[in-house]
Amino acid sequence: MFLRFAATAVAMTLAAPAFAQDAAATPETLPDIAQGAEDAPLTIVEYASFTCGHCANFHANVYPQLKSEYIDTGKVRFVQRDVYFDQPGLWAGILARCGGDDKFFPVSGMLFDEQEQWLAGGSGDEIATNLRRIGLKAGMTEEQMTACWEDTAKVEQLIATFQTNATADEVEATPTFIIGGEKVSNQPWDSMKEIIDTKLAEAAPAQ
User: Fold this and answer.
1) What's the CATH number where 96 sits?
2) What does the sequence similarity comment in the record state about its family (predicted)?
């Protein structure tokens, strides 16, 4: 899916469920949420949209191998950065962070796994209802989700973070990966594994 840096990105907040109207004038960017050892020799950043089919495919077919072989073994630190193409993707991004950092990756996984189902709503209200069902399954309360969607200042920060990071890394499509500082397009697992192994070899201390 190709990236559209819309000048009206901030306006998307106005169409989110029950957003307040008191956004901060100068939103700050938010820190990354990462998986894996802090001292891992290699960092992989994924730019993904929760409404991107190729991103859902990556998380279903490639990410499990990446996690088991590299993240869980301390070789890779993995960062997922959200990209917002549309209002449903923004709403999903808010939900993913609503439960705190510890729930970000589990909720993200649910959003990708159930992407076809929650996006199937014919209206914004139906999609929001579908997203609430995912949040409830993840252990959030109705009140908690409503508070997150009404927190316009936080939403402004999410959009500012997306725009700042994606512009700096010249991201034009999702999923896009930054592997050891190198921008890499969507890859099948075998190709990505080869790139990762090469980067790990480069990062290894000289004997």
Assistant:
1) 3.40.30.10
2) Belongs to the thioredoxin family. DsbA subfamily.
